[in-house]
């Protein structure tokens, strides 16, 4: 160990080891001054390596703490201020301090002339033999390894000499050589050197395996090419065609296909497979159909959605009267897309009675958004394969309805209407509702896999709109994926506007007539609505208008066609000439108060209706008799109503000596639900006490054993029915107050709506004292 102070060169990207002879170029002034200073003294210089090669002016912290003392052998000045230095490493040195003086780096070091000490003789022999074996294995796998260097490494008999020769010529990064320089334990140096050899030998082995595999594949491809050419020639000789025109057509379509690379690769693989199949085989026909399906799908093709909110609102208003909530929701979606550029499509479910325009509103939404429109009817679908597709192994396999809809739309972002989603059915073989979950789940449908396509298809940009009449038949997990928007029954005023603004003009055109030839008065349309239709929507209303126009055409038909000289006006007076006598007479409110008869309100698929619930007290065996085609829930409501009345009426002998008979007229019509609870309770109370019920009052609400009034649904339709029947007052559960506040003014106008929370309030309001 010896202390020295030497001029120092900071090396970038290289490490010089003891006994290594190497030349390098320097251009930093500090380094040039250090070399010149060394040449003026004893030609000795200290070489330190920078930790980061990008450091321009390194200080002690930027340099490694171990370097090499070297002898400057030669100095050559090159153009542009570059100096080439030839040095020979002598021994390593450990840095105490590095400072700058006279425009160069000066290092105060402690030298160590023995880089590492050799082990005992036997250990040294074992290490040398082991290294020689590794050197030979390395040379065997590295075909570019120099035989001269191999010889140099093998002839070194001394372990120190061998290590220095190996590290001088081994192709490793300078940081690895620096680590070796910093080591002083011979065992550590040997282990690291052996590990380095073994890792590189393994790398070369793996590389050779990869190259052999690639070579084998290339040879296989060449063999397949040769066989295909032979097969092509054989096919030409057999039927005079080579099938290449069809293959070329598929390849041309594939080149122009807008799809991801992995999709194109898979399709190309299928085309190559089809190419080697016998053209007349059934397998070839299956493969042909599969390829044509893949090429016809809009993998990355999309249409530009319209973001003109004003135009969308105009289109929706032109095509549909009312439907305020639906229109607002669509316009909200448009506004959000315009602001955020978010392509995520919502999944909307329109729920309402038949004929209320659920399907037609979806078509108008597609028009307003400038989207392609695809309608998929799910009514009666009971096979999961209708949604997910059939596996290609089956005869007659084809993709599911979702993929088929995409193929028809020719874009990946159409509006897809899933019509009658509540009509899907399941059997013991498959669950259609579960198959729809993946389609409608925003977290999963970006990689929807159809069994036939067998590749992920992105459905996330499709705007799904589902329609349903009754949500009770829709599975809960499926319902959770959708945003529910209720499309309720139309009021008489709404039906009148729809008929005037849409239906009449549509049917005039369909029947070859004009506005100048036939006109409907408002009273005629109102009479059709009241007397000839009984529905929540306007489908039957449109049929009645069409029936009138057909009669007009038939009456005025001549050989030359329809001849109408003077405009025909359809009024409420002459309407029966075209449609016959009135079909429906609305049930009106009773004129007198009666005992045991209460007017209830009901929701039906055709809208709202009023029901007179009748109760009689009969002598004989004590029992509860229920008639009128009641469902299980309504029967339970009747039992609860009876239990409540028994708890509040003190004359219990009435119940012990008499039967209570509850009847709901129109016995052929099934009835169910809990909303007649307070109506039945009031009717029983009236019959038992002999007190009459106010005939101008109707009520709806579920009742509990303790007399609490619970909220119900279908309130809009029920209030419309009450208004049509001429009732003045309606008792509504208090918890339904928010529902009433959302209704249009024309529905509640003329009705006194009283909110009740307990049966005591109901009886106080309904019973006439």
Automatic annotation (TrEMBL):
InterPro entries tied to this protein: AAA+_ATPase (IPR003593), ATPase_AAA_core (IPR003959), Lon_bac (IPR027543), Lon_bac/euk-typ (IPR004815), Lon_lid (IPR054594), Lon_proteolytic (IPR008269), Lon_Prtase (IPR027065), Lon_prtase_N (IPR003111)
Active-site residues, as the UniProt record annotates them: 675, 718
- Write down the Gene3D superfamilies for this protein, in alphabetical order: 1.10.8.60, 1.20.5.5270, 1.20.58.1480, 3.30.230.10, LON domain-like, P-loop containing nucleotide triphosphate hydrolases
According to the record, what induces this protein's expression?
By heat shock.
Q: What is its EC number?
A: 3.4.21.53
Family annotation (SMART domains): AAA, LON
Q: Name one Pfam family in it.
A: Lon_lid
Q: Mind listing the UniProt keywords for this protein, alphabetically?
A: ATP-binding, Cytoplasm, Hydrolase, Nucleotide-binding, Protease, Serine protease, Stress response
* Lineage top rank: taxon: Bacteria
Q: Which reaction does it catalyse?
A: Hydrolysis of proteins in presence of ATP
The record's subcellular location field reads: Cytoplasm
The molecular function GO annotations come to: serine-type endopeptidase activity
Which CDD domains does this UniProt record tie to the protein?
A: RecA-like_Lon
Tell me where in this chain the Lon N-terminal domain is found.
6-201
Where's the Lon proteolytic domain? 592-769
Residues where ATP binds: 352-359
Query: Self-association or partners: how does it assemble?
Result: Homohexamer. Organized in a ring with a central cavity.
Role summary: ATP-dependent serine protease that mediates the selective degradation of mutant and abnormal proteins as well as certain short-lived regulatory proteins. Required for cellular homeostasis and for survival from DNA damage and developmental changes induced by stress. Degrades polypeptides processively to yield small peptide fragments that are 5 to 10 amino acids long. Binds to DNA in a double-stranded, site-specific manner.
HAMAP family noted in UniProt: lon_bact (MF_01973)
Per the record, the similarity remark reads: Belongs to the peptidase S16 family.
What NCBIfam families does this protein's entry cite?
lon (TIGR00763)
Q: What is this protein called?
A: Lon protease
Q: Supply the source organism for this entry.
A: Lachnospira hominis (ex Liu et al. 2021)
């Amino acid at each position: 160990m010896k202390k020295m102070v030497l001029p120092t060169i900071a090396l970038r990207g290289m490490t010089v080891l003891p006994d290594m002879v190497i030349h390098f170029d320097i251009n930093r002034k500090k380094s040039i001054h250090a070399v010149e200073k060394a040449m003026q003294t004893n030609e000795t210089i200290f070489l330190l390596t920078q930790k980061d090669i990008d450091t321009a002016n390194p200080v002690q912290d930027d340099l490694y703490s171990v370097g090499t003392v070297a002898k400057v052998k030669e100095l050559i000045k090159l153009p542009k201020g570059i100096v080439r230095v030839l040095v020979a490493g002598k021994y390593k040195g450990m840095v105490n301090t590095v400072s700058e003086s006279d425009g160069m780096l000066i290092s105060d070091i402690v030298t160590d002339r023995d880089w590492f000490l050799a082990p005992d003789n036997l250990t040294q022999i074992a290490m040398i033999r082991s290294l020689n074996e590794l050197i030979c294995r390395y040379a065997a796998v590295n075909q570019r390894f120099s035989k001269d260097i191999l010889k140099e490494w093998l002839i070194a008999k001394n372990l120190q000499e061998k290590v220095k020769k190996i590290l001088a010529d081994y192709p490793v990064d300078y940081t690895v050589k620096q680590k070796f320089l910093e080591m002083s334990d011979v065992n550590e140096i040997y282990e690291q050197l052996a590990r380095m050899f073994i890792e590189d030998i393994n790398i070369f082995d793996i590389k050779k395996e990869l190259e052999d595999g690639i070579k084998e594949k290339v040879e296989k491809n060449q063999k397949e090419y040769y066989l295909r050419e032979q097969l092509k020639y054989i096919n030409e000789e057999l039927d005079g065609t080579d099938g290449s025109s069809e293959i070329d057509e598929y390849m041309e379509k594939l080149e122009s296909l807008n799809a991801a690379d992995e999709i194109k690769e898979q399709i190309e693989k299928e085309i190559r497979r089809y190419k080697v199949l016998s053209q007349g085989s059934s397998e070839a026909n299956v493969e042909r159909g599969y390829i044509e399906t893949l090429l016809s799908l809009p993998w990355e093709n999309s249409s530009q959605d319209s973001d003109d909110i004003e135009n969308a609102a105009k289109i929706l208003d032109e095509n549909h009267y009312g439907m305020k909530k639906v229109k607002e929701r669509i316009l909200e979606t448009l506004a959000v897309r315009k602001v955020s550029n978010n392509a995520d499509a919502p999944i909307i479910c329109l729920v309402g009675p038949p004929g209320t325009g659920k399907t037609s509103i979806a078509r108008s939404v597609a028009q307003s958004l400038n989207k392609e429109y695809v309608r998929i009817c799910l009514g009666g679908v009971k096979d999961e394969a209708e949604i997910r597709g059939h596996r290609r192994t089956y005869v007659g396999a084809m993709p599911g309805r979702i993929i088929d809809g995409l193929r028809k739309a020719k874009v990946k972002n159409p509006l897809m209407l899933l019509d009658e989603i509540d009509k899907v059915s399941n059997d013991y073989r498959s669950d259609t509702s579960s198959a729809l979950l993946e389609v409608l789940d925003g977290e999963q449908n970006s990689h929807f896999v159809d069994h036939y396509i067998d590749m992920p298809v992105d459905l996330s940009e499709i705007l799904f709109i589902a329609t349903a009449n009754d949500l009770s038949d829709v599975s809960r997990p499926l319902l959770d994926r959708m945003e529910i928007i209720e499309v309720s029954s139309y009021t008489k005023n709404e039906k009148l506007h729809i008929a005037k603004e849409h239906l009449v003009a549509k049917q005039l055109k369909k029947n070859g007539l004009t506005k100048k030839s036939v006109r409907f008065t408002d009273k005629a349309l109102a009479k059709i609505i009241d007397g000839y239709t009984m529905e929540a929507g306007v489908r039957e209303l449109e049929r009645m208008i069409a029936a009138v126009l057909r009669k007009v055409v038939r009456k005025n038909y001549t050989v030359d066609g329809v001849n109408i000289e003077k405009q025909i006006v359809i009024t409420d007076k002459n309407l029966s000439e075209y449609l016959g006598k009135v079909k429906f007479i609305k049930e009106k409110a009773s004129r007198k108060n009666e005992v045991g008869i209460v007017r209830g309100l009901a929701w039906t698929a055709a809208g709202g209706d009023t029901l007179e619930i009748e109760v009689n007290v009969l002598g004989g065996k004590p029992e509860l008799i229920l008639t009128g085609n009641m469902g299980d829930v309504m029967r339970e409501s009747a039992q609860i109503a009876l239990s409540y009345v028994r708890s509040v009426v003190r004359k219990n002998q009435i119940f012990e000596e008499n039967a209570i008979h509850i009847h709901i007229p129109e016995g052929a019509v099934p009835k169910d639900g809990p909303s007649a609870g307070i109506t039945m309770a009031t009717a029983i109370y009236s019959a038992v006490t002999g007190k009459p019920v106010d005939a101008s009052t109707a009520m709806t609400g579920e009742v509990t054993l303790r007399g609490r009034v619970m909220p119900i649904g279908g309130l809009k339709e029920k209030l419309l029915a009450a208004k049509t029947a001429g009732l003045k007052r309606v008792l509504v559960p208090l918890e339904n107050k928010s529902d009433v506040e959302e209704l249009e003014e024309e529905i509640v106008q003329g009705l006194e709506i009283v909110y009740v929370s307990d049966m005591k309030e109901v009886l106080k309001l309904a019973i006439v004292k």
